[in-house]
Amino acid sequence: MTDIILHHYDLSPFSEKIRLALGHKGLAWRSVKVEAVPPRPLLDALTGGYRRVPVLQIGADVYCDTEVIFRALERLQPEPTLYPTGEGLSKALSLWWDRATWKPAIGVLVAHIGEHLPEAFLKDRKEHYLGYDISKAGMAPMLPVYVQQMAAFAEWLDSMLGRTGAYLTGDALGAADLTCYHSLWLLRANAGADTIDAQLGLSPAVTAWMDRVAAVGHGTLSEMTPEEAVAAAHAATPDSTFAADADPSGLKLGTQVTVTPDDNARVPVSGTLVSADKQEVVVAVERPETGRIHVHFPRAGFETLPASSAAQSAA
């Protein structure tokens, strides 16, 4: 089987979500460590410029955003599934959690460790990623609100677990658990579990659930260099496992398009539309370093537009 390659860095909570998904499925994978702050020229060559992490690579197919990475892993190895009660509930819960908790989680985090964050990291996140100041001083005025929000959300998790059992959508672990775990993991891993549990009032049910999620581990990994990953893409041919001509807005295959996140890090990826349905869009990108690659994105949370329309909008 072609190597499963994850481009990530250790303290990325979204990367932790995917590392756990790989563990849940018992997969062996190659680990390519990237810098938390760009430039990442070799990763840019693989993604067409998409700047968020993690990125999953399987040969000449590159998957951007955790939702479409989950979908790729489901195609690759259906069992154990990431969607034990179906996709809808897990995806809706995951999208809400990612967007609702991101800023308050960062606010709580920097209150504890903000003085240790490099200036280059803070500058990048303000100017190129989030659009606001995540320094300790910059986030401090709203810290009480961030604590209030995270405590409220954590209590919702407690309520869900009280009705569903061991996991958020039922008796089996799924994508919703991996998603709702990751921002609390970020806080506990960096500020200390006892500190965060007390500050947010995490219930015994929530902390026991986190222990169960963590227990799935990260699967079996081996290190790989960025250069080796690029070479693997160049030597491969894009897979045809996902092939669809069903764009809900009527975009035709062969159209030059841009795909852009609709929330932050709004760097468009330009390419030729080669596959699309209601949940996933794929564009072909060609670079000297990689040859022809297919870059996959989810539909929810991303804007796919004809290149001419996107240029007019930017102007």
Automatic annotation (TrEMBL):
GO molecular function, one term: transferase activity
Keywords recorded for this protein, A-Z: Transferase
Domain GST N-terminal: 2-81
Keyword Mitochondrion appears in the UniProt entry: no
Transferase is among the record's keywords: yes
Protein name per Swiss-Prot or TrEMBL: Glutathione S-transferase
Pfam families documented for this protein: GST_C_2 (PF13410), GST_N_3 (PF13417)
Highest taxon of source: Bacteria
